[in-house]
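hey so i finally got around to running the thing on that chain from the lab meeting. sorry it took forever, my laptop kept dying and i had to restart like 3 times. anyway pasting the input first so we r on the same page abt which one it is
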Amino acid sequence: MAASVYAEFPVEAPFFCWIAVGRARSLGYTVGMAMRLRSGFSLIELIVTIAFLFIVASYAVIFGARSIGIAELDRARDTALSEIVLARSRAMGGTGGAAWGVFFATSSLTTFKGFSYPTREAAFDLTTEFASNIGFSGATSIIFLPPEGLVQVPGTVAISNATASSTISVNAISGINVQ
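ok and heres what got predicted. didnt touch it at all, straight out
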């Protein structure tokens, strides 16, 4: 009977397979049954694999949320910068013969025509809303005077959310600095 068990098993098989055959024979199994016993994953292997995948997935979620927050902040900063440049260009071009400015609320900004936000011409307002996690602080408005487009009062606006922050500064000669 021993000859028939080894006759079913190829000679070039690795050493651990011969160990499996020996163990199978001691338990009363045939060679084919021994190979089927080792053909799956153990519970430990599955638990380790699932734990590894869970760790990788949690890092992906953390870094994904952070990159979304940074992208939202970049969008808010770029929009605020373009609206400030637009207001300065309109003041320099004499559009409407008045000053132009940008008013910063908690999570929105408004480009307006006028020498102050309370006395503006509301028909020319252009308001942009942002996600509730984006916040503006610092100067509440930046106003540019015609015809040179000089700023009425220099100021700095801070833009922030839970993951990052950025600032836009306008100096006395209407130079714009983004950090």
